[in-house]
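Weekly structure sync, notes
Attendees: PL (lead), two postdocs, one rotation student
Agenda item 3: pending single-chain targets
PL asked that the sequence for the first pending target be pasted directly into the notes so everyone works from the same version. It is reproduced below exactly as submitted, 456 residues in total.
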Amino acid sequence: MSKKDFSRRKFISVVSAGSVGMAAAASVPAFGSFSKSNSNAGKLALLGGDPVRRNKSWPDWPYVDEKVVESIEKTTRSGIWCRIQSATGTVPTFEKAYAELMEAKYCVAVGSGTQALHTAVEAMGIGPGDEVITSPYTDPGTIAAILSARALPVLADLDPDSYQLDPADVEKRINENTKAIMPVHMMGQPADLDKFMAMAKRHNLYVIEDACQAHLARHRSKILGNIGNLGCFSFQTSKTISCGEGGAIIGDDEELMDICYTVQNHGTSRKGRTERIGPKYRMNEFEAAILLGQLEGAKERFERRNANANYLSEKLKGFPGIVPQKLYDGTESGSFYLYPMTYNKEYFNDLDRNTFLKVIAAEGVGLSGYIKNGLHKEPWVDTIISQKMYQKMYSPARLRQFKEGMDLPMCDQVCEDMLMLWASGPLLGTKEDMDDVINAIMKIYENRDQLKSLKS
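Predicted structure, written out during the meeting:
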């Protein structure tokens, strides 16, 4: 089958009958059978046609309702604005509620996902001379957590279909100084945890799950964050459970979680003794109040996102032009912080991704890229290897090897080809909203000959 001629007939032949169906309310039937009642239905909106989606809005995010407002008001009136004022304030109450929600024994709340990750690194005793292997395709907070402990973040390449760390490349980078693997559950979907947990056991390594995007996602009946030694979460505004900023660490190891508490409490333990080196990362009571107001409906919103994401994936099944993120064996559900897809331009007359995004935006569907370039292409790499402290901690040969290891072609490919629907709010929409996304994609595909005039 020619990549440049994936016809509607051939498309329908490779998808299930259920995936060809569409909601009756959708204005343009799915997969390119456009309404003849609209003279511009087959003309791309960017070129003067009528858009698939007009004057419609997506569900708002962050989530606010009266329970959230009441929770903040209650905390304001209480005068308890710092967690150390009360053992029953909103932060300790949230920690218990979040641990229960995440099916963990313990939770320590902090001020951000970055702080959660740094606290975990420090609690494990990882520091100067040590190495932690993680992903280049992530928020800078992931490596900031390692650098803040003055350890070395070693970046491994990606599986380009899942946008997750490639276990085979990770294993190649393990050496005698490696102390932990920090898989990032990108877009809220589980990384290849079966392989990472087996690898950690073989090499006697910690596993710190960067689950900052992955609230409530499940792998083999376990919620993410409960599979490695520690799991770290973010509550930044865009996350599926959010309070502006904020973070949490979960785990079942009481001793390790007590150390996490001590680290984030400027080294002061629950007994009130200053015992360790640690920053002041305490979550404030107002952040916890917002979170407590949200938790009751968190599972329902999670399930709605999964239902809509599964619907989109079923609709796109078999279409090679736009391919949803690969999910690993054992994945039961995802948080769907983002709904990501790989854009294969050869099916759209070789139109570059950025121009495709303008075309679909004109149809009323806002997709976007995500990370412009991987962390291996950012200036921090040269900054740390030029610093005296890193030159003292690591040999010239190791720093040279570290720099040479920043050739990560699969990550570069993902940065170039991936596009996504921001999902925290939009995936709470209706089936009609989801059909709009599919219809816009397929309208562009069916009218791909019109794209020739848009190519630079």
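Discussion points:
- The first strand starts at residue 106 and ends at 110.
- Residues 298-316 form the longest helix (19 residues).
Action: rotation student to compare against the earlier draft before next sync.
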